[in-house]
Amino acid sequence: MCTITMPTKLAAFAWRLCQSILHHLFSNGPHWLEFVSPEISNEDYERLLTILLALWSAKNGNLIPEKDRNEKENPDLDQAMMSKPTVFPTKNRWIPPPMGLHKVNFDGAFDGDGKKGGIGVIIRDNEGFVWGGAAIKIDNVTEGNINEAWAAVKALKVAQEMGYRRIILESDCFWVLNILLMEDVDDGSYIRCIVEEGKRVMGELEECYFHHIEREGNHVANLIARHGVIMSEGDFYWKHDYPNFIHQSIMCDAINL
User: Does domain 73-255 match CATH 1.20.1440.20?
Assistant: First the structure.
């Protein structure tokens, strides 16, 4: 099955199914699915997975009404809706956003010796599927705080440019989330300019909430950011897909859903 080419969302679903991650829906999934895959064409196998994914999504929708599902996935959502943007309470693992929102994780990596920075962005939905992301290289970086601030702004821009206008912006850097909420930033003119640009982009989104997460829960974005530091070519963007070097980390988060 691993040699079959298919859309990323179906590939991730098939992997989770064969790892018994979705055992609550398909208790014998790994056995018969692996048996069937060599016997049918790639096209028919993709159709089969599409049907199974639709059944799984429909089952989730029937079991948990949308309002209850939002509360279950993030009990702080209703309180957060009272004012925006809002910083959600800290979590130590990645959790999916409520249905209808995309979670945008970001991180910044900094090489002080080479004065280089990297920015990592990953966008996922309420089922943990990847919808986009970016690895961005920043030259002539003199401070880690500046790189983190740029990472937040770049994450907002990536989400906006890819068409995701209802988001939760998540990071393990509480400082940068907090500074974006301040009415006035007294932290040097350069930081102020970065923050003002971030607020401008936030104002063009329909909804934007902030969520602070512990570092271990933000490992995918951190991995991408560190890759950005060492990239020799230009910035790397993807949509409805993701690079191979973060595959294992994406799947680790999926296992914990």
Answer: no
